[in-house]
Amino acid sequence: MTSATRKLPTEDLNDEQKEKLAELRKFVTEMNLDTPEAAFCTDIMLYRYLLGLDWNMDAVKDQLTKTIEWRKEAKPQNIKYEDLAQVTGTPWLFRHGVDKDGRPVMYIQIQHDTVENTEDVKKLKFLLLAYYMEQGFHTMPEGAYNFTYLVDFKNASLNMELINKMRSVLGGIGLYYPYEFVLILTNNVVKIWQRFLLLMLGG
C-alpha cells in the first residue's frame, strides 16, 4: 500500500481506543481553545498523544494541557527561520525529503553542531527542531503521522558530553511532540553505541 492510499491510524482503532479518543476530543472541546491551539488538536494529533503515552488518559490530558500552555507562549507555528540564525550557520540539522513511508526525514550531522551549547543556544536549537516539526505537519502525506530522525555521527567523538548535548536538544521533543519520531538511526556508530544512544535519547 502506498503512502497515497495508506489509511489513517485513527481508522483502525478498537472500541476502547475510539472511546478514549472521543473522551480526549471532549476534553479539548471543553477547554475553549483559541484558534491556533484548536487547530493543533486534530484527531491525528490527539492520537499521537494517546499512542505516545500508552493510552493513559490522566497522563495524556496532563501532557496535552502542558503542550497547549507552551504553544500559547512559544507560538511554534509562527517561528521564522531567519530568527534562528545563531544556530543555523552550519548544516547540523535540516529536512531531507521523506522516507519510503512518507515520513519527513530530519537529518542531524553531529560534526557540524559547533555552536557553544549555552542555555540560550539550547532553547534556539529546540525552536529550530520545532520549526521543522511544524513545517513537517503541513507537508506530511495522508496516512503518515510521525518523523524519521537520521543522526550522523561521522567524524564526531562519542563521549558523554556529546550524548548530553544531543539529549538536551532531542530530549525535549517528547514533551511537546509525543510520538512524533519513532526512529533515530545512527550512521557510523558501532552497535553497542547505537543501543545506548537510543536509550539516552528516548528512542
Report the end-to-end length measured between terminal Cα atoms: 26 Å
The spatial strand order of the largest sheet comes to 1-2-3-4
Q: Which CATH C-level class of the largest domain is it?
A: Alpha Beta
Round the Cα radius of gyration to an integer and report it: 17 Å
Q: What is the CATH homology-level superfamily of the largest domain?
A: CRAL-TRIO lipid binding domain
Helix segment count? 8
Strand content: 5-15%
How many β-strands, per DSSP? Answer: 4
Overall, the morphology is globular
Describe the structure.
By secondary structure, the chain is an alpha/beta fold. The chain folds into 2 domains: 11-74, Orthogonal Bundle (Helicase, Ruva Protein, domain 3), CATH 1.10.8; 79-201, CRAL-TRIO lipid binding domain (Phosphatidylinositol Transfer Protein Sec14p, 3-Layer(aba) Sandwich), CATH 3.40.525. Helices cover 47% and strands 12% of the residues. Helix 1 crosses helix 3.
Question: Could you outline the blueprint of secondary structure elements for this entry?
Answer:
Layout: H1 15-29, H2 35-40, H3 43-52, H4 57-74, E1 93-98, E2 104-109, H5 119-139, E3 147-152, H6 160-170, H7 173-176, E4 181-187, H8 191-201
Parallel strand pairs: 2-3, 3-4
Antiparallel strand pairs: 1-2
List keywords for this structure.
203 residues; alpha/beta; Helicase, Ruva Protein, domain 3; Phosphatidylinositol Transfer Protein Sec14p; 2 domains; four-stranded mixed beta sheet; 8 helices; 4 strands
